[in-house]
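As noted in the main text, all predictions were made from sequence alone. Below is one such record, for Phosphatidylinositol-glycan biosynthesis class X protein.
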Amino acid sequence: SLLNSGYHRELLYQLDFGGRFKKSTQCDIVIVQTLHQGVYVRGDQLAEIKRHHLKNSYIPVHVDIEAPAEISSSFTLYLYTKSYDKAVIRLPIHFRYHYPSSLTSFANVPMYEPSIYTSCPGRNYEREASQSYYFPCSNATQVIDYDQEELSGVGGVPVCTWFDLKCKVFSRGVATVSVPLGNLNMNIVVVVITTATVWSACGYIIFAIARKTKN
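Prediction:
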């Protein structure tokens, strides 16, 4: 589910495995979430999730949170948890600013559905899954590495074998988000109003200073 409104929101993941995993065997679960170029996440907030909720995460690329959407790229985020019967993860996300336009007032940012995989020692998933995948392990990196620009690809990061859980994804309000754009047709109006406001303020200040000096 997509919570809140505006540029700063939360993706809410509610996982319900319905007793699929044995309580005696704790498996790793990874949510693989691709985010559009118009969306970013902040490393400090991911660090907070790990510190307070014990949910590790990994991004294999450097994310420039200051760049506008047009010069950014989509990226994949890995969120890790354990095979509890139920799990809840709240991921803070932020929508990027877009270049202003003279043709439209909004940009549509698609929200992609996540995929869920498991890595479970002692359980043979090869018979249940049609294909195995290789993703970073749940201990792939420390959160302090997120803002280092040299992070690119998964080179040097431990990779584990993961299997598709074939989970049903029920999405609510996460198909597309409309982000408001600046209007290029308003340039002249904005310049005129801004200039008039600045000159009026300057004139008032000069008048006030002159009046005080005279008195």
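Confidence is low (pLDDT under 50) at residues 142-154. Residues 2-182 form one domain. These features were considered when defining construct boundaries for the mutagenesis experiments described in Section 2.9.
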